[in-house]
Design goal:
CATH class of the largest domain: Alpha Beta
CATH architecture of the largest domain: 2-Layer Sandwich
Number of strands: 12
Number of domains: 3
Strand content: 15-25%
CATH superfamily of the largest domain: PAS domain
Oligomer: single chain
Largest sheet: 5 strands, antiparallel
Strand order of the largest sheet: 2-1-5-4-3
Radius of gyration: 51 Å
Structural class: alpha+beta
Helix content: 40-55%
């Protein structure tokens, strides 16, 4: 028994020229060319076929109507009792393309008589034609029709022949033109489709060429955006925006790695130096041993803070820091920070005043880290332990504000716009960095926390006269 298989997925397209598997392997340009040529060819074939069928049908219908009218006219002439003569029939039929034959019928058999104007003998037929069919007589194609007329008890068979050679030649010429039109139309549509696909995909090729020349060390190249505002231009704009973001991100990453390497170089060098000192002669010298241990501990703590803050910034950039907002009282958080800082070795006098509503919506750990950074900087950059620090929590213009003001060394106007950048340090000669070690990431983290809470910050400072920071929060509705 022969097995049958489902071959619906393997049906070839366009007579087997292109299969679905081959279509998948085509390039976009090839698919556009193929689809354009295919659609144009289908439209051309359907349109040409409709015209061809319509012309053929119209010619045949016109000739059949002409034959029918001529046969009816002759039948009316006979049924009126008029004499059947060659002259009379010619007068009834002035059309030279139409020939008329009249035969008297006897007992359902035809009796041929030249006197009755029958033009052709039955011997020339290979079959008995039916009305509306074609017959070929002496290499000439005729359209055939017949009609029966009665007079005085006699029946006459009227056969009408229409010379169809002229129409047949016209139809053959139309067929040739139609075939040539399809052939050249398919070729022309393929070439036109190829040109259209080349022009259409030109911006995409520019995108490909630009992408091939873009490297890690060269992200400055962009795609030229000319032409109409279509989807391809939108793709080019999106690609350029993506490259711009990559360039900014790579520049920041490169700067971040360079700054982190620079910051880590110093504590590593210090630890390595003291380790060598201990290895040489510090084992038996108590003062050298204690100095080395204290320095190594300090630098280790500094490195730990740096790594911790680096990891925090990395998680923040990847949106992996979990933020849980809840109602918070800023005065209470600042009071906790002041108490915790009072336990450190060096502490300045910090005065806290609270007035109005201090309730906001925020993440407790992040808000506490934010004001710890500002308060720690105020203490760190104080000129001495006698300098005062003021923290005020108050309301202004429907905002909950926190102001941290100190009498420290201040920040120059040149450095002020850059203090929230990573690892940015003001001139060491003006900031006494030897007494104020840090990671250079605190204010960057503070700026991120402020952004995540839809808050605003204003910094005012003058070199040698202290700094004032005001953070504004939206109150709880």
């Amino acid at each position: 028994m022969q097995k049958t298989s489902n071959a619906s997925a393997k049906i070839p397209l366009f007579g087997g020229l292109v299969s679905p598997s081959r279509l998948k392997l085509m390039t976009i340009g090839g698919k556009i060319t193929f689809m354009y040529a295919g659609i144009f060819s289908i439209v051309l074939i359907i349109g040409g076929s409709v015209i061809f069928v319509n012309v053929t049908y119209t010619y045949k219908w016109y000739c059949q109507r002409e034959l029918s009218q001529t046969a009816s006219k002759v039948a009316e002439y006979i049924e009126a009792g008029n004499p059947i003569t060659e002259k009379a029939i010619k007068e009834l039929n002035p059309n030279k393309a139409v020939q008329i034959g009249i035969t008297e019928m006897d007992s359902l058999k035809l009796r041929f008589s030249r006197s009755l104007l029958f033009p052709f003998s039955m011997d020339v037929y290979t079959y008995d034609p039916k009305p509306g069919q074609y017959v070929v007589v002496q290499a000439v194609k005729y359209l055939f029709d017949e009609k029966v007329a009665s007079y005085a008890g006699r029946q006459y068979l009227i056969r009408v022949y229409r010379n169809y050679d002229r129409e047949n030649r016209i139809i053959n010429m139309i067929t040739t033109i139609y075939a040539l039109t399809i052939i050249f139309g398919v070729i022309g549509s393929y070439l036109l489709g190829k040109t259209i696909s080349r022009v259409t995909l030109r911006p995409i090729r520019r995108i490909i060429q630009t992408a091939e020349h873009i490297g890690i060390e060269d992200l400055s190249r962009r795609i030229e955006m000319n032409g109409p505002d279509d989807e391809i231009k939108e793709l080019a704009v999106t690609f350029n925006d993506m490259i711009s973001r990559l360039e900014i991100s790579f520049r920041r990453q490169k700067q971040f790695v360079a700054d982190a390497s620079h910051e880590l170089r110093t504590p590593i060098s210090v630890i390595q130096g003291y380790a060598n000192l201990l290895d040489r002669w510090g084992k038996n010298d108590v003062s050298v041993l204690q100095e080395s241990i204290d320095s190594i501990k300090a630098e280790t703590e500094h490195m730990g803070q740096l790594v911790k803050r680096l990891l925090f910034m990395a998680k923040a950039e990847q949106n992996k820091v979990q933020i849980t907002k809840q109602p918070l009282q800023l005065g209470q958080i600042v009071e906790e920070i002041i108490k915790e800082m009072g336990l450190t070795e060096r502490s300045n006098a910090v005065a806290l005043t609270t007035s109005g509503t201090d309730l906001i919506e925020g993440d407790y750990d992040l808000i506490k880290q934010l004001f710890w950074i500002f308060t720690e900087n105020a203490v760190k950059y104080s000129k001495s332990s006698d300098d005062h620090i003021w923290i005020d929590v108050y309301n202004e213009k429907s905002q909950v504000c926190v102001r941290i003001k100190d009498e420290g060394i201040g920040i120059s106007q040149e450095d002020l716009p850059y203090i929230f950048e990573r690892f940015y340090r003001a001139d060491k000669s003006r900031t006494n960095q030897s007494q104020a070690p840090g990671t250079g990431l605190g204010l960057s983290i503070a700026a991120w926390i402020i952004k995540m809470h839809d808050a605003a910050i204003n910094v005012e400072s003058e070199l040698g006269r202290g700094t004032q920071i005001i953070v504004q929060f939206k109150p709880v509705d």
